[in-house]
Amino acid sequence: MDVYILLQQLFNGITLGTIYGLIAVGYTMVYGVIRMINFAHGDVYMVSAYIAAITLAVLTFFGIQSAPFALISVLVITCAVTAVYGWAIERVAYRPLRGSTKLAPLISAIGISLMLQSYVQISQGARDQGVPTLISGAFRFGDGVHFAQITYMQTVILFASLIAMGILTYVINYTRIGRECRATQQNIRMSAVLGVNTDRIISTVFVIGAATAAVGGVLVTFNYGSFNFFIGFVMGIKAFTAAVLGGIGSLPGAVLGGILLGLTEALFAGYVSTDYKDVFAFALLITLLFFRPYGLLGRPEIQKV
Amino acid sequence: MTTPLLEIHNVTMRFGGIVANRNVSFSVERGAVTALIGPNGAGKTTMFNCITGFYRASEGEIVLNGRDGPLDIGTLITKPVTGGSHLVTRAGIARTFQNIRLFKDMSVVENLLVAQHLVTANNLLSGVFRTPSFHRAEREAVDRAYHWLREMNLADDANRLAGELPYGRQRRLEIARAMCTGPTLICLDEPAAGLNPSETRELSEVIQRLCTEHDQSVLVIEHDMALVMRISQHIVVLDHGEVISDGTPEHVANDPAVVAAYLGVSEEEVEA
């Protein structure tokens, strides 16, 4: 039945899209505050996959069998460790270059990206790594022949993303640190004049971005089971696309862009061709930017004199 | 005789070969309005930027005799690792700008809350977990925000977006925001620019009230001479980067050097 194929692709697309959205958050927040594309962000995501696998191995070593407990501890630990990576990268590679030309931190970001890839390749090996399936099984809709299914892991992805986004929205809109982030995003110098420690806010944004990417990293790792040192590249490009699609600098835009990109890919793969799904996704991006140059929810930047 | 709040000693500011300020010395008294005036290009805003820590003066020193004793602004902003202009605000100097720099996409109250992070120090965790001390600090911050909104006649606009306010109100909101940082000295850069006569009158009342009711020290740059004469107790005149006159409004208004340098230019402006 056609309707089940459609339903299946919608499930898949939304799941994939929320992951894109989680990672796009890092791009969009960093861009919002310091107007810089953090090209190393995809590789931070890749590192988080390795951290997740190592944490799981350690937990298993200590005899922890319960899947929910393992998943939650892996999630928390990975977020924390990846956040440290995010903080350190900003501190070492970007902050010393602040105030220099706009291109310098971009080059530095590419350098960090290559460094992380090589470092993981050397320390963890170039081959694909895998993790055991933690949660198997699926909800099925339809009869025995025609059906759509949403795996338990996909459900976990949706819920975990939803919770992560909820926490993030709360922090940004209702806490003091979030208020400082929004103020810094709107006018970094004025915020400093009002006594906001903008360096600390920038660090915070990198920490938040890395932690949300880590949520994505953990979820993808447990969903697909395998990863290598190069996964950050493609995921980074996709998430960046999602951020641009939604309007870079806009947090809801990142999520919207992610889901839209995920759905487009899934539907095209399901109905037309798996090989050309990326071509179609990027063609859509180009078309959309043609009509809305600032993305779906982005706003044109007014040049101040 | 108490020490002045702010003392400026022989400050020279150069940009490459251009000298914007040469050997400028003056002081800002406590609890009074000091006006810095002069024709366009006299170096008033440059001086302001030195005082508020945007620029490091090439020579001379700027000393704030604030809450924590004498403090040299120049060394504050060039302090290694932790130095920066946010420290000048923390030391007690707040400012507004010629062009309005509100956080337009945030509500009026939020604009004021952002400015209070010095007064109520808090870390991320206490905010996320909502500790009692965080609650108290937040409540105090909101109270202070409303206090200054009332002082600036803005209480009705508390929950509007800052960018939606009429121009005159945005100006007053900037002053309210600067006051929320708890400054010992507030520096206003052309607060009346672009205001209509009734808005200007309201502004001058607000500034005078800061001074008389809150014993606030104010340093103001302004081109509207009627406003300057009405609100200030002390006037410093700059021309070509140098102080040409310094004293009470009566003294300055009758100073031949000021008449020559300043009024000549302003007559041309009137004709133009």
Description:
Chain A: Keywords: Amino-acid transport, Cell inner membrane, Cell membrane, Membrane, Transmembrane, Transmembrane helix, Transport. Chain A: Pfam families: BPD_transp_2. Chain A: Belongs to the binding-protein-dependent transport system permease family. LivHM subfamily. The complex is a heterodimer of chains A (305) and B (272). In chain A, the strands form 2 sheets. Chain A has a two-stranded antiparallel sheet. Chain A has a two-stranded antiparallel sheet with strand order 2-3. Chain A is mainly α and 305 residues long. Chain A has a single domain (2-291), classed as ABC transporter involved in vitamin B12 uptake, BtuC (Orthogonal Bundle), CATH 1.10.3470. Chain A is globular and about 65 Å long. Chain A has 11 helices and 4 strands, in the order ααααβββααααβααα. Chain B has 2 domains: 1-92 and 183-272, Rossmann fold (3-Layer(aba) Sandwich), CATH 3.40.50; 103-182, no CATH class. Chain B has helices at residues 44-51, 73-78, 85-91, 108-114, 124-129, 132-151, 167-180, 197-214, 225-231, 249-253, 256-271; strands at residues 6-15, 18-28, 33-37, 59-66, 69-72, 93-95, 185-189, 217-221, 234-239, 242-247. In chain B, a hairpin with a 2-residue loop joins strand 4 and strand 5. The radius of gyration of chain B is 19 Å and the shape is globular. The model of chain B has no long low-confidence stretch (mean pLDDT 83). At the A-B interface, helix 6, helix 7 and helix 8 of A face helix 3, helix 4 and helix 5 of B.
